[in-house]
Design brief:
22% strand; Jelly Rolls; homodimer; alpha+beta; seven-stranded antiparallel sheet; 301 residues
């Protein structure tokens, strides 16, 4: 456990302070590492640089997939898990939406979060050792799965968790097939190259609402329309067992899901150990440990 | 204006009466007409028979599209239209969701609803003259557009409007591009061949709720899952100016829309003049005239 440093760090990505949306260029490299380091090849690194994400067709074996899915179902039906603070429940349907901190609370997911297949890619992308900033299971149940509006994760992590720079990557490991119709991840490819400084402040304990439905840190409709016209929208379909790794500043969203096919994934955020969190840049206090970890111990070690 | 006949018509498609979902085979032909009659060719008719729908790449000219879109925007911003009973407003956002009866209230849409390009196809599919059972503009605004759960239109029209048999076809004319990501029409292809008899009754004035969010007449999740596994889900993408015609008993739905791209269409229901409505089969009284017309005058005449 590392103590949070006082926030003397310069705020390179101001947000939630002004009355007008501002668009800043993103600084520094996106993919830090080179193809020689492996395992990601040059074309994949270039795609990540240009589009802000990469896809992996089969990250885990069919046996692992079966184990993970069984664990997913077990957790969703465990009443002590449902009552835990780190579990987020849908406002209307009372169904489990997310279970946070699974890389610390669950042995099966601790292992995959520290697995060399994942860590090597994250280290190559971020150009350093990495630690886990946040982890969760996301459930998008069939029929009632809710949407998530457009946002940059980095904007929230910067404002509310004190992450200095967008030198972090998210892994979304699919435990169900992603079809165009069951509310898959949508990314505006290229949007990670610009940072949208949002208006307004951050209400106290904003995370209690924002993990269910965003408010603060959501860009205005006109800016989002301009971004969509400029960058387009990629719909990330793909089979269970595959994964997406995407830059922390990608503008992304997902629609709701009225189909019978649930959409569930394991979501793990790796941050560079050279980019550890300080005091929040635009919130009265940091979010709880399950949303933004202060344990900066390198993963996989 | 024709007086509704007393309901001595045999109920071939009972629904909302039992305590258990039942699945009945659909009776009679699906595409009634032959390719010789035109304008639909043999392959298109076969597709309609098998899948329950057909698509038209370009039903209207670019000039017409422009005119229709301008009229759409004008109506959405007319306060007298918003206050009208035939206008359905989103519960949460207070945005206009649908404007009904546009084939009677609006000259531009009266014309297209009676246009030979449409009527000839509807007559060929239904094997008789046709009349307009219902018409509406559907708006699915960007960012806040809401989903529509799985349902068969015929189940509602039978239960609440007294339509004897599924000898009706819906035209959905796209006024905006349909992408996989902005909440397009989804159809379970082949599902029109079986009728799901739903449980429960119909609350009085059910239409006031059901036009915003269905309750009565919605199949149970297990039946929908079985149907999806058996038939699959077709996502109907396509450019503005194109159209879909689909059988009244197709199981269909659409997801919400968090993208900036609105999705709007003109929706017109043609019923065979040999299948005119009688008393409702499973509701205390018929829906208002704007939802189920009692003017059985042949369209296009």
């Amino acid at each position: 456990m590392t103590v949070i440093s006082p926030s003397t760090t310069k705020d390179l990505y101001p947000t939630r302070s002004g009355e007008k949306t501002e668009i800043l260029d993103r600084r520094g490299p996106i993919a830090f590492g080179s193809a020689e380091q492996g395992p990601l090849d040059a074309a994949t690194l270039q795609h990540y640089d240009d589009k802000g994400y990469l896809t992996i067709d089969e990250l885990i074996t069919p046996n692992e997939l079966e184990t993970f899915r069984a664990e997913l179902h077990r957790l969703a039906n465990d009443p002590t898990i449902k009552d835990d603070d780190a579990t987020i429940v849908e406002a209307k349907s009372n169904e489990v939406r997310s279970i946070f901190d699974i890389h610390r609370s669950n042995e099966i997911f601790r292992k995959i979060a520290n697995d060399p297949r994942v860590i090597a890619r994250a280290e190559q992308l971020l150009g350093s050792e990495v630690y886990i900033h946040q982890s969760r299971i996301n459930y998008k149940p069939g029929f009632v799965g809710k949407e998530f509006s457009w946002h940059s994760d980095f904007e929230t992590w910067h404002a509310e968790d004190g992450m200095p720079e967008p030198r972090a990557v998210s892994l979304s490991l699919s435990l169900t097939d992603n079809y165009s119709f069951n509310g898959p991840l949508m990314i505006m490819p290229g949007s990670h190259q610009r940072y949208i400084s949002c208006v307004g402040g951050t209400p106290e304990d904003n995370y209690k609402k924002s993990l269910v439905m965003q408010g603060a840190g959501t860009p205005d409709p006109q800016t989002l329309s301009d971004f969509a016209d400029e960058y387009g929208i990629d719909v990330l379909e793909g089979p269970a067992g595959g994964a997406v790794m995407f830059d922390s500043n990608c503008m992304h969203a997902s629609n709701g899901n009225v189909t019978p096919y649930s959409r569930s994934n394991i979501f793990i955020v790796y941050n560079s150990v050279e980019n550890t969190c300080v005091e929040p840049f635009a919130a009265p206090k940091p979010r709880p440990e399950f949303a933004g970890s202060t344990d900066f111990t390198p993963a996989g070690s």
